[in-house]
């Protein structure tokens, strides 16, 4: 199938009542493993590169984007390229030329009126470049510039505000705060399914769940059934990768060839991706594994 547009993958998932999984790419091994896992599951997948990952690569967006796109182009399943959590307008304006078909513009930490104004401007610019646009309303936990708890008063997305926000900004998808947190290393988050259902009824665009690594399988399945479409996963991959690297190095103190520990790490990421895709993108009623 190869490289496709994110908007098409999300629309297809929404029409089928399943989740479109988006996995964070930091290294080439991440991209290779994510696509390998998607091929094993026989499911489409979104490769997403965050602004923080671009910064880690020296602020140069094109090399990491080109590597991810090259992996996508040779995939046996449909794969798209998404630029995530962008706050820098200069980076946003490079996205389309770097090969991204979609972008998540993140002004969620700003005052509400400022969030609307900046997001509307970003959406207009991105649409002008042919990109699908995601934005965030509410405060997903786990980010240093936002409330620490996903359960603090006033942090969750209000359905009425969500409808107004989508109308005012013109975004194509909305990331919502419903109980998940970024960077969780335990799968103990509890989501507000009733709120997800109300949000789905209030807005006309697909809903996005950030911080999905900390959400148990059954909670993810119910979230998709309630109305979540795009499901973002990052930390779970890094847990798998780091665990495999640690095990390999602990088993051989003389090991210096990075292929000997990055190979198992890549395999561990691929297995995590395969399992999570089975959780979020299987049709309702299909047999699903619960060992992610």
Could you explain how this protein is built, in words?
The chain is α/β, with parallel strands linked by helices and 292 residues long. It has one domain (2-280): Aldolase class I (TIM Barrel, Alpha-Beta Barrel). Helix content is 48%, strand content 15%. It has eleven helices and nine strands. The protein has an eight-stranded parallel β-barrel with strand order 2-3-4-5-6-7-8-9, surrounded by ten helices. α8 links the parallel β7 and β8. It is globular. Mean pLDDT is 90; it is low at 146-153 and 287-292.
Q: In a nutshell, what does this entry contain?
A:
Helix content is 48%, strand content 15%. With 292 residues, the chain is α/β, with parallel strands linked by helices. It has one domain: TIM Barrel (Alpha-Beta Barrel).
Instruction: Tell me the distance between the termini.
Output: 26 Å
Could you tell me the number of beta strands?
9
Q: Percentage of helical residues? A: 40-55%
> Whole-number average pLDDT?
90
C-alpha-based Rg, rounded: 18 Å
| Secondary-structure-derived class | alpha/beta
CATH superfamily: Aldolase class I
Query: How large is the share of residues in beta strands?
Result: 15-25%
Low-confidence parts: 146-153, 287-292
